Amino acid sequence: MCIVQSSTIITRTMTEPALPPPTPQAATLVTLAALADKHTFIEYPLATPFTCASFQVDELVYVSTSTGKVKKSHPADDTSNGTSTGRLFARGKVVDIAPPQYPGRVKIEYRDGSAYHANPSRLTPQLFRPNAGSAQVGVIVTAKTDHYRRLARTQITSTDIVLEIGCDLGITVDSIADIVGPSNVIGVDKSHDSIQIAKDSYPRCRFVEMDIFHSRDDLIALAADCTKVLIDINGNRLLPAVVEALRLVLEGCHKVDLVIVKSVEMHRERCKK
């Protein structure tokens, strides 16, 4: 800006006011967006129902039992929202999709050789299928405990090595041990009392007391061979802590191909996209 005074021109340099630093919440959302740019995020339940097109021949799926006709089902059990319903029954292999005799059905073969033509709504596929040679990791985000535990049952296979961050009393770790074996799953939690209860309740499983935000190197070492990581740090914990836990896993655990996160806030933010 120029000001004229008695034929003398005085030049003042106008400087832009400094922008305020971003709020912690804004910085967290930027970090979350950056992680989503690098990896595949999936919000569960899905926005669309499972159909025959959701499945591939030779893939393993989890079959649920029929719940029968219920007049007033809970919205979370509505197959139109992309989640299978009914009690989880057994894992099977897809051998045919929509054969002429059974249009709209998926043929499943069980380990004992028996077969069943299932409605797609009774099946849960692998929601993330990693590409060979890709560094991209799948991240499934859910807000509900029952969905989180259902994902733990259906997305983990017998060949996986698993870590749960925020294992609390050990219920999910024990369930995963049925799939991968007790030696291939570890639960960590920062609560001394929770870890002691978990050890007493499920002595076959391994539990470690750890605050991951103060023991980053220990976490990375513990998860060095893990292929699946589950994060449930109290479910409703503030978003910055959940995003930081996810960032630690995605940047430090190089063998992981899938992370399952239970977080009300992260699920809400992702569903805005």
From TrEMBL:
Extract the InterPro entries matched here: SAM-dependent_MTases_sf
Top-level taxon: Eukaryota
Q: What is this protein called?
A: Methyltransferase domain-containing protein
User: What species does this protein belong to?
Assistant: Aphanomyces astaci (Crayfish plague agent)
Lineage at the top is: Eukaryota, Sar, Stramenopiles, Oomycota, Saprolegniomycetes
